[in-house]
């Protein structure tokens, strides 16, 4: 599992239209943990990073690492593509 970085965290929240408080609530961490991580004030403990990642993934975020581009996020399709 690739490490979570602050821009990915902000981008995941943006895709989900979540505030820092909403992410903190869903990940069961403090809002200050989200705020300080996203602003680069401190790194996350491994457990906090896993909780944040899991909350985002449960809501449909996919964390990716694109060769030649770097880490990013996208949303999983909610329904399989029906086109053949």
Automatic annotation (TrEMBL):
Coiled-coil regions listed in the entry: none
According to the entry, every stretch annotated as the HTH cro/C1-type domain falls at 10-57
Report the domain of life of the source organism: Bacteria
- Which PROSITE patterns does the record match to this protein? HTH_CROC1
Alphabetical list of SUPFAM superfamilies matching this protein? lambda repressor-like DNA-binding domains
Q: Which GO terms describe its molecular function?
A: DNA binding
Please give the name of this protein. Helix-turn-helix domain-containing protein
| Species name | Faunimonas pinastri
